[in-house]
Design goal:
With 391 residues, this protein is of the alpha/beta class. The chain has two domains: 22-265, Type I PLP-dependent aspartate aminotransferase-like (Major domain) (Aspartate Aminotransferase, domain 2); 267-390, Alpha-Beta Complex (Aspartate Aminotransferase, domain 1), CATH 3.90.1150. The chain has 14 helices and 14 strands. α11 packs parallel to α13 (354-372) and α12 crosses α13. The longest helix is centred in the C-terminal third of the chain and has 21 residues, at 268-288. The mean pLDDT is 97.
Length: 391
């Protein structure tokens, strides 16, 4: 056993967690106060307001659930779904499948719409399913972390609401890196995680609920199946009453508070543009190295999570191991049917930088050359540098 925690310094360019600003890490080490201390209650209020700005919503019921992004998913599902409620879940990756699993566990009558990994859903197929099944809730993933696919939502939202249903959206990877536009799009419930584009350690799950979603919760016939995630009680802790519910992770909320300050100090539009710029540079570099994206339609590719096809004849594990052990760079492998076929390269929050893009391209060039027994070409860094010079 080691005498103290002393982890290696990594460049986190996988599907999460992402690199963290030193000021966010410093916030974790601030003195702990009680969960009902006036100072912490002020922090809670400010976290709520900043989350509203980042979610782009006026929803009063916007807060950080004590738990990772999966806890945010469960919170939204178990509060909206009662036994025998009809639910449609759109699955085109691992996390759509997880949402369907949670909805079944909540007792929902779940219909799963499926698309191949890397593809997105059309408004027409959602409309046909909604017309056939007449659901209470339609769940869909905005940014599918397992595939790098970006799902357009505007037309789908109109279809869902015209049918009188609620729209539930997974924004775990998109929040802070892409516009989620909760109010403009008409999303009724959404959840995210702190460890992606917000560049905060994992441990909290931002969620937001529209007034329509709260009305549906208030009209429930059955108690929420999870006591810990029951919004009818949590809203009293995060609201004006401050009724004790559980001991919140004080220092994690400090960290989220600072991470959100950094997001808003940069400005959402600037932050979105930064993610896009580094995505374009990375894409140019990868293409110069002969590496293509697994999502074929460019408009459906996530800028912060780049899923690419592993070149033929290249050993997946060997490259990722070399990147980690020789260059200190972490990237992710494929999930589900994409395992062994794709790499997932993250440019999230603090990780979205020219230094990271150029360092990664130089490192992967060397890894590919080692397996091919050839010299690195330098083509990737040259192509990415050209993008930066022209931007």
């Amino acid at each position: 056993m080691t005498d103290q925690v002393n982890p290696p310094q990594r460049t986190l360019m996988g599907p999460g967690p992402s690199d963290i600003h030193p000021s966010v890490l410093a916030a974790l080490a601030a003195p702990t106060v009680g969960h009902l201390d006036p100072y912490f209650l002020q922090i809670m209020d400010e976290v709520q307001q900043m989350l509203r700005e980042v979610f782009q919503t006026e929803n009063q019921m916007t807060m950080a659930i004590s738990g990772t992004g999966s806890a945010g998913m469960e919170t939204c599902v178990v509060n909206l779904v009662e036994p025998r409620d009809k639910v449609i879940v759109c699955q085109n990756g691992v996390f759509g499948g997880r949402m369907a699993d949670v909805a079944r566990r909540a007792g929902g009558d779940v219909t799963v719409l499926e698309r191949p990994f890397g593809e997105v859903f059309s408004a027409d197929e959602i409309a046909a399913a909604v017309d056939q099944h007449k659901p209470k809730v339609v769940g869909i993933v905005h940014a599918e972390t397992s595939t790098g696919a970006l799902q357009p939502l505007e037309e789908i939202s109109r279809i869902v609401h015209d049918a009188g249903a609620l729209l539930l959206v997974d924004c775990v990877t998109s929040l802070g890196g892409l516009p989620v536009s909760i109010d403009a799009v008409g999303i009724d419930a959404a959840y995210s995680g702190t460890q992606k584009c917000l560049s905060c350690p994992p441990g909290l799950a931002p969620v937001t609920f529209s007034p329509r979603a709260l009305e549906a919760m208030d009209a429930r016939s059955n108690a929420v199946s999870s006591w810990y995630l029951d919004i009818s009680m949590l809203r009293n802790y995060w609201g004006a009453d401050r009724a004790y519910h559980h001991t919140a992770p004080i220092n994690m909320n400090y960290a989220l508070h600072q991470a959100l300050r950094l997001v808003l100090d940069e400005g959402l539009e600037n932050r979105f543009a930064r993610h896009r710029q580094h995505h374009e540079a990375l894409k140019a570099g990868l293409e110069a190295l002969g590496i293509s994206y697994s999502v074929t339609e460019p408009s459906h590719r996530l800028p912060m999570l780049n899923s690419v096809l592993i070149p033929e004849g290249i050993d997946d594990g060997q490259v990722r191991s070399q990147l980690l052990n020789e260059f200190g760079i972490e990237i992710g492998g494929g999930l589900g049917p994409m395992k062994g076929k794709t790499w997932r390269i993250g440019l999230m929050g603090e990780a979205a930088s020219s230094t990271n893009v150029l360092s990664f391209l130089a490192a992967v060039d060397q890894c590919l050359a080692a397996q091919r027994q050839s010299a690195p070409t330098g083509a990737g860094t040259a192509a990415a540098s050209a993008v930066y010079l022209n931007s």
